[in-house]
Amino acid sequence: MELIKAKDYQDMSKKAAQFIIEKVKANPKAVLGLATGGTPVQTYANIVEEHQKNDTTYQGVTSFNLDEYIGLPVEDPNSYHYYMNKHLFSHIDIPDTQVFLPNGLAADLTEECSAYEDLIKQHGGIDLQLLGLGHNGHIGFNEPGTPFEQRTHVVDLAESTIKANARFFDKLEEVPRQAITAGIRTIMDSKEMLLIVSGEQKREALQHLLHGEVTTDFPASILQQHPHVTVIATEDAL
Ligand code: PGA
Questions:
Q1: Which of 11, 14, 99, 233 has most Cβ atoms within 10 angstroms of its Cβ?
Q2: Which H/E stretch holds residue 192?
Q3: Catalytic residue chosen out of the listed positions 65, 136, 142, 165
Q4: 38-56: average pLDDT
């Protein structure tokens, strides 16, 4: 694992955006794995700004998001479809037909999970997966206890995750209880990963990720076994 220290959230976001932009410039047909949550917001803003300034193109890029809530319509401001359009897709030139998120409204959710997995394979797999880190070590919505071999699946969100995500909703009761997430095996199949971590409240989780035991109790610990992971973390998270 390569560790890059950032001064603060702004610096982390700048470095992460640069990292992604360079990958896209080196491989204009890159398949990106994308994440949502609070951490990547400014990274996406920097990618948008750079695109507007330098015309870096995303026309050949394909993206797959890690997860989506079950039961939220695409136009719901708390859906990850909405988040991605708001923060990234509507501001860059990536074609709509090349952005994919799991469909949390699919009639057959099991079928949706295997179709999503197949779609990633058909595109040759993920070249660069962007990841945030949950307080409980989750990556995507793979909560503690998720088997490392699991692929895209339906998950019951941990109570701590529901509470952590309640900040985006009006009421705790509005946070969906389930999601579709790319599995740990899906994530580990990515050729390269970029994990971004910011803030003192992530310190314990980051310590476990970097130095702790590899265990399903802390899903992100499996990244220690991936050959090509870069972590960009703020000083206070370190
Ligand atoms: P956050 O979430 O970026 O909102 O802190 C990270 C995660 O849960 O993966």
A1: 233
A2: strand 192-197
A3: 136
A4: 97
Query: Measured from the CA of 140, which atom of ligand 1 is nearest?
Result: 9
Is 132 a pocket residue for ligand 1 (Cβ < 6 Å)? Answer: yes
Structure tokens at 23: 């990958």
Query: Which of 118, 144, 113, 153 is CA-nearest to residue 222?
Result: 144
Q: What is the β-pairing status of strands 128-131 and 153-156? A: unpaired
Cross-sheet strand order for the sheet of 67-69: 67-69, 178-181, 153-156
Residue recorded with tokens 């307080």: 135
pLDDT tens for each residue of 81-96? 999 999 999 999 999 9
Q: Quickly state the pLDDT bin for 147 (edges 50, 70, 90).
A: very high
The model carries a pTM of: 0.96
Looking up residue 86, the CATH number of its domain turns out to be 3.40.50.1360
Give kind and range of the element (H or E) at residue 142.
Answer: none
Q: Which domain does 82 fall in, by range?
A: 2-234
The Å distance, Cα 133 to ligand 1 centre, comes to: 6
Give residue 53 CA to ligand 1 midpoint distance, Å.
28
* pLDDT given at position 220: 98
pLDDT of amino acid 42: 98
Which tens digit of pLDDT belongs to each residue from 215-231?
A: 999 999 999 999 999 99
Active site residue 85: no
Domains: count for the chain: 1
